[in-house]
Amino acid sequence: MLDIVGLLQTEKDTFTRSERALTEIVLSDADSVLKMSIVDLAAQAEVSPPTVTRFCRRLGCDSYADFKVRLAQSRFVGQRYFAPASGPSSVREIAQGVVNGIQSTVYETFETCDFDAVERAAETLVKSKYMLSFGSGGSSSMLAMEAEARFFRLGLKVASSTDHQVQMMRAAAAAPGTAIIAFSLSGNNLPLVKALAIAGEYGLPRVVMSRAGSAMADQADVFLPVTWRENQDILRPTPGRYAFLANLDILAQTMATRLGGSAIAAMRRIKHQLVVNRDGDDAQPLGD
Predict the structure, then answer these.
(1) CATH class of segment(s) 4-77
(2) What is the three-state SS of 21-47?
(3) I want to staple 121 with a disulfide (CB 3.0 to 4.6 A). Which of 24, 94, 207, 283 is the partner?
(4) Sequence-separated (6 or more) residues with CB below 8 Å from residue 162
């Protein structure tokens, strides 16, 4: 779908005077433009109707009618970004909004956590011979690497991947006994869905952490649902990251508890080397 609004915003400085006049009208009040005839828009911009037609064709539209259809589509997608609500401006207000959002999300994570699913996921991953951790596209990439960091210190074999093509290849080449854990905030990461489907073809157990009812959820052998309320303030980073991190920490500690002595032994060796080579005492985290 052609993003008419985005195209106008990025290309307006290259337009002629008449085209800039039309652009300013469209960007300032797209809703009104959708109700205008070509004659009305031409009159408001003080140009001729043929100029409007040429403007539409320059944007890749066949006609003024086609332009309005594409403008309506662009207007519908991401409506909050056309007229964003005014948010906090002082650092104190911003900090309060961010921290309150994180706190609410973490509390809600506990209330909605599927404890039975976490137990099944921990069992699946602990008994595997090797784990692949998949995610891509921002926060999900971070989560895939975070899972690797959480699990290797338990003495488990794990590798993360954030590249879709590599994910498909690794799923296809994985040896029996391999388990996959995958992350997606949206649940609509279709290339990752394809990699999980490939893993399923080869009988690899798949633990999926994502939104319920999503394409990702459909590929799960063990599904860990994550829910949160998204910000209305478009400038505030999503608190969903913290919902996923909390669920991942719950899963990691459950796995460590089920592993018992072997996890503690691996963590002790790591801590020994950190104390000797970095910290000099036992007060620092197991990592950095």
Answers:
(1) mainly alpha
(2) HHHHHHHHCHHHHHHCCHHHHHHHHCC
(3) 207
(4) 134, 135, 136, 140, 141, 144, 145
Q: Return the structure tokens found at 186.
A: 């949206």
| Residues 6+ positions from 99 with CB-CB distance below 8 Å | none
What does the DSSP 8-state code read for residue 2? -
Q: Which amino acid is at 213?
A: G
Residue the block writes with tokens 């469209």: 26
Token readout for 251 is 């899963």
Note the maximum CA span of the chain.
80
Contact predicate 236/104, CB 8 Å: no
In the chain, what are the helix, strand and coil shares in percent, each to the nearest 5?
A: 60, 10, 30
Per-residue pLDDT of the chain (288 residues; tens, 9 = 90+): 678 888 888 888 899 999 999 999 998 888 899 999 999 999 999 999 999 999 999 999 999 999 999 888 887 766 666 666 677 889 999 999 999 999 999 999 999 999 999 999 999 999 999 999 999 988 999 999 999 999 999 999 999 999 999 999 999 999 999 999 999 999 999 999 999 999 999 999 999 999 999 999 999 999 999 998 887 788 888 899 999 999 999 999 999 999 999 999 999 999 999 999 988 888 888 877
What are the structural domain ranges in the chain? 4-77, 113-260
Question: In whole angstroms, what separates CA 283 from the centre of its chain?
Answer: 34
Q: How many CB atoms lie within 10 A of CB 252?
A: 20
